[in-house]
Structure formats: C-alpha cells, structure tokens
Amino acid sequence: MTGTVILVLVVVLAVAVGLVLRARSGTVKPTAGAQTVARRPAPAGRPDDQADRDVDTAEEESGDQTGVQALLRAAGLRGDGPAVVHFSATWCGPCAAVRRVVAGTSARLAAEAPEGAPVQDLELDLDEHAVLARRLRVMSLPTTFIYDAEGVGHGRISGVPDASALAEALRPLR
User: Fold this and answer.
1) H-helix segments, 40-94
2) What does the alpha-carbon distance between residue 55 and residue 40 come to, in Å, rounded to a whole number?
3) Cβ neighbours for 89, distance < 8 A, ≥ 6 positions apart
4) Per CATH, the architecture of 28-173 is what?
5) Residue 17: predicted pLDDT
6) Are 78 and 120 in contact (CB under 8 A)?
7) Distance, CA of 135 to CA of 71 (rounded, Å)
8) N or C end of the chain: smaller count of CB under 10 Å?
9) If the chain, 174 residues long, is cut into consecutive pieces of 10 residues, what is the mean pLDDT of each piece?
10) Which residues contact 74 (CB under 8 A, 6 or more apart)?
11) For position 20, what pLDDT does the model report?
12) Which of 156, 172, 169, 150 is nearest to 65 (CA)?
C-alpha cells in the first residue's frame, strides 16, 4: 500500500513539473535591461578559463553591456532596428521550428507596418559563438533573445517561440 501511494505521488509530481515546463516554453520573459555578463578576475588557484565562465550580475544590473554588445556586433547584429537573435546547432531539431516562427513573424510585422524598421533575424551557431552563448547564459537550445536598435535586451525565450508573443514583444521596438 505504501509503495502505491509513493508511486502515485511521484507520478503526480512529475506531471505537475511537466505542465509547468510546458507552459513556460516559448513565452517571452522580459529582461531587466541589458543582457550583460562580464569577466571576473580569476581567484587564486583557479584556472583563468573558469573565471571566464563566471557571471557578474552586478555589472548586468548596472547596465554595462559593452562586452556583450561588441560580441553581438561581431556576430552580425546591425543595430538598424530590432533584432531576434537565436542560438541553434545542427543537431537541434526544434531549431528548425524557431527559424520558421521568426521568419514568419518578421514577414507578418513587415506587412502590417512597412514603414517600421525591419526585424533582423540573426541565427547563431552555438559552437561558433560559444563565448557569446556563455555570456548570455544559454543553457539549452533553442534559446532566443530580442534586442532593440541600441542592442539592449528586451526578452528571452527558451524553446520554440510563440509567434503571437514574439510579435507582441517586437511591435513596440519597430
């Protein structure tokens, strides 16, 4: 009897966690200002590459975003309007769906308001842009970011974006 109760509780908990994760996937999570991570000096006895993996949230909160902006510009961010930056990899199945959603949303926004700034669609390979991915804390694929013309982050999406939520996040930036 006790084994059955434990099994039922585990199944209920697993379903609840699955539903929460499913509900969160694809939604735009607003960012607090800039998507910035800075390099900390290596503490004594720690390898320098480990220090590069550390995240400095104090600089993120202060709005200092020059390092990430430089990496984004080097990756191809133009800065002439809003941009959707999504990380992908050749082995990532859902990344193809992200391509379709971003392309369709960009085309729909351009048709709705041709006078607005075009949305830049910048797809970055995780392996080729590992430093930028690490600085932006990309932990899973696909991960999508929304930037304005100044390179300030306005949203982060884990999973395949919901097209209507992506459009709503981009409209005020055009």
Assistant:
1) 48-53, 57-62, 66-75
2) 7
3) 95, 125, 126, 127, 141
4) 3-Layer(aba) Sandwich (3.40)
5) 87
6) yes
7) 9
8) N
9) 91 89 78 45 46 40 66 94 96 96 96 90 96 95 95 94 95 91
10) none
11) 81
12) 150
